[in-house]
Amino acid sequence: MIEQPNPAAPRGIFSFTREQWMLAGAGGLIGAVLALVITFGVGWLGYFPGASDARIQTYLMTHPDVLISMTNLLQQKEADEDQLKRQAAADKLGEKRFFDPAVAYVAGPKDAKKTLVEFFDYNCPYCKASLPAIKKFYEAHKNDTRFAFIELPVKGPESTVAAQIAIAARRQPDKYIPFYFELMGTGGLDQATIQAAAVKVGLDIPKLTTDMNDPAVTKTIAASLRLAHEALIDGTPTFIVNGKVQPQAGMVTDASLAELAKR
């Protein structure tokens, strides 16, 4: 059963509700978190200048809303700094690195002024949840946007097998995009479901089997993992639209993708 993504759910070490903070206090966890916030957060955010640690801890224990606000600010500050680093890394690499056929399946006009890069894993629930928006965007912009689809198998052996087969499918170019859509729209992927998807879109199965065993396929996966590392990309899906890195890895909707395209 595929995990259902919750776009509203925050993801980070400081993602606690007020009730969770109170429960954590009962178990002793809040003390450790308080120490972390006092050590790193107080000076960083400018809270309580000149106060002792004991007075700060006492105040925060009796005013949990302040503690929650501080941790949220710390989380946002960390996310903002990470985003700046990712964008700087992408800028340094240059767009051409993401449109290298040795790494990506590239589609769309070569002289397109608009671009979209996606790093994805076929078993990633957020990637699957993004499919309707990506499919709609692709159909609307395939004649005016350059696309780079980059397999980034990070969710185990089944993801690696799916990526190997999809990369082999690139050698049947007119079948790759339909196959990508079919795999992304399929539930749990195993050998049977992947083969069924390949048959459904009309791939030449004997050729596909031969091609997926080519050592070049393994090299492509290694290259995509290396590129993601250099670009500081650590989650799927991650989009780079018109050279701008998506602020946070996660699913996209029609609205959020349109907003990214405006940047």
From the structure above, extract its key features:
single chain; 263 residues; alpha+beta; Glutaredoxin; five-stranded mixed sheet; elongated; disordered N terminus
Characterization of the model:
The chain has two domains: 18-84, no CATH class; 95-262, Glutaredoxin (3-Layer(aba) Sandwich). It has twelve helices and five strands. The protein has helices at 18-27, 29-45, 53-62, 64-93, 95-98, 125-141, 157-169, 173-184, 191-200, 205-212, 215-230, 254-262; strands at 105-107, 114-120, 145-151, 238-241, 244-245. A five-stranded mixed beta sheet has the order 1-3-2-4-5, with helices on both faces. The chain is elongated, with a radius of gyration of 22 Å.
Write out the strand line-up for the largest beta sheet, numbering strands in chain order: 1-3-2-4-5
Q: Quick one: overall form?
A: elongated
Instruction: Kindly state the percentage of residues in helix.
Output: 55-70%
Q: Under CATH, the topology of the largest domain is which?
A: Glutaredoxin
Terminal-residue CA separation:
36 Å
Poorly predicted segments: 1-29
Element-level helix/strand string? HHHHHEEHEHHHHHEEH
**Number of helices, counting only DSSP H or I runs of 4 residues or more:** 12
Q: What would the average pLDDT be, to the nearest integer?
A: 82
| Strand portion | 5-15%
Number of strands: 5
Q: Given the helix and strand composition, which structural class is it?
A: alpha+beta
| CATH class category of the largest domain | Alpha Beta
Tell me the CATH superfamily of the largest domain. Glutaredoxin
Largest sheet: 5 strands, mixed
Count of spatially separate domains:
2
